Amino acid sequence: MVDSSPVVSHGPTARPARLPVPAAIREGILRGEFVPGQRLVEADLSEQFEASRAAVRSALVELATEGLVERVANRGARVRVVPLEEAIEIYEVRMVLEALCAAKAAERADDAEVAELRGIGTDMEEAVAAGEVMVYRQLNERLHRRIREMSGQRTAGSVLERLRAQSVRQQFKVATTPGRPKVSLPEHLAIIDAICRHDAVAADAALREHLRSVMDAMRSSHAG
């Protein structure tokens, strides 16, 4: 059996010990280290992650089934380019599932989780005030992840994680648009407030309104 776990590297491309090759490449795509349309050369990935060519090949097949990578005849693999129309469809599905998670989180949130969400909201306000766009983006991801976890909806969470991966570049483009954090901050605070008040209906509505706003921003960025 081929060991698909890369060895720890001390260079700039170091990855945590025992992180499987599929996860390492996936993280690279999510973090923007591999951009849409970029060729994924097995030999280069094998060297980068200090893994066998067989392990890299298997990882690319796995990521292709997730919609992150596409294999082109006689040209190998590349990071899949997700067109705007498909990205919008992905967000429409995300809207339904994330709204469900927000409603369930509102029903289930305990005092500690309420305090945690309030804390994330405060941190987001401080990040926007300080102009820390990347910090705000990280808090954004943390908030959405915690809502999924708090909801207890494992199936929805699993589907959402895959959908998020497929639309991450569109999301990154919107999140880093000048002035966008000031637009999305009140939307996030409304979601937090509804969940903390245990208002499932309001949480559902606030989450939907937020993702509609994201889709409008995506359309605008492509039109510009």
TrEMBL record:
Protein keywords: DNA-binding, Transcription, Transcription regulation
Entry-linked InterPro entries: GntR_C, TF_FadR/GntR_C, Tscrpt_reg_HTH_GntR, WH-like_DNA-bd_sf, WH_DNA-bd_sf
Name of the protein in question: GntR family transcriptional regulator
Entry-linked PANTHER family: GLUCONATE OPERON TRANSCRIPTIONAL REPRESSOR, TRANSCRIPTIONAL REGULATOR, GNTR FAMILY
Keyword Plastid: no
Domain of life: Bacteria
Record-level Gene Ontology MF annotations: DNA binding; DNA-binding transcription factor activity
Source organism of the structure: Marmoricola endophyticus
Family matches, as CDD domains: WHTH_GntR
Residues annotated as domain HTH gntR-type: 15-82
Keyword Transcription regulation assigned: yes
